[in-house]
Amino acid sequence: MADLQLVNMTKRYDDFVAVDDVSLAIEDGEFVTLLGPSGCGKTTILRTIAGFLRPDAGALYIGGRLATDIPANKRRTAMCFQSYALFPHMSVRENIRFGLRMQKLPADEQERRLSEAVDMVGLHGLESRRPAQLSGGQQQRVSLARAVATHPDILLFDEPLSNLDAKLREHVRVEIKELQRRLRTTSLYVTHDQAEALMISDRIVVMNAGRIEQIGDPETIYRRPSNSFVADFIGVANVIEGQPVASENGATVLETEIGRLSLSAADRVGADAVLVSWRPEEMVIFRDGMENRIDGVVRQSIFMGNLLDLFIEVKGRTIRAQMTGEARVTAGEPIALSVPRDRIHPLG
Ligand code: ATP
After folding, report:
1. Which domain holds residue 339?
2. pLDDT exceeding 70 applies to what percent of the chain?
3. What is the pTM assigned to this prediction?
4. 9, 11, 15, 16, best to mutate for ligand 1 pocket (most atoms within 8 Å of CB)
């Protein structure tokens, strides 16, 4: 077990800066996810921690010890890859045992760790099969067993579920989370799937173009994104600019393109225009006595099973609203909505 620290890390490929002065501290036993669009530098960070790449600047500490110059095979990290990276000619047993042999553990210890890992990921009865004789989900479990069997200080996951279908992805995700909870191994998980990140992580690091945009627990990242990139990348968000024009009962009133909106925020009157955001599911059908009335026309109403996904045109802009399936809303109809002031969040 160990904590992990990246200090001002930069990694370039020729002139291209893939990781740009990134600092990050992960606590012992924590499960942290790097989340961001394709090409933002997630895998580069993971590979640098594993020791497959050397940073151009900055330092890496594992368990408080400077690890930047420690060779990959001495770092006590283990990686689960998207492609599983199993040896095709070896059985499940031999694949899992491989890392233990590399560690030169005594034969009886190898045997103990092997059966412990097979137990943990539920691979009983499949030990003699080769990877080609397994499903994608089973192959990913072998990859997981191979990683945990080495008792690493740090577990690294590089989009381990991308090759699985949606149902299996959900299943293996729960297994990974459960296993990590039991082992308490410090884990860094890379994905570009925001729903996956929200479900699996203790904390999420949102990245864009080689830099960190925000670090926080899933709820903070979702409810209080620090800028419009994060708001937009994590699910659906309504983002609008407003000019503070008045202050009433502890709220600031903003003049926006879709009308006046009150938000619970310290007095900002006189300040520059602010960007605010709120989630579609915070919107409700307007009733007397409610605040922040927004009038528009329903352009699309999509039945999603558990909710109705609405695209509403308001003064030339599209506002998104999501409501439980009981709401009766049809495309083409006028609609009046409301969003509570404490659900409108200033960005930045
Ligand atoms: P993805 O989700 O697509 O895997 P990522 O966030 O993991 O993306 P990286 O693989 O870290 O991104 O790549 C970051 C940037 O560095 C990308 O623009 C990529 O094209 C570039 N890059 C990665 N490896 C190399 C390399 N060996 N040589 C040159 N450029 C590279």
Report:
1. 236-347
2. 97
3. 0.88
4. 16
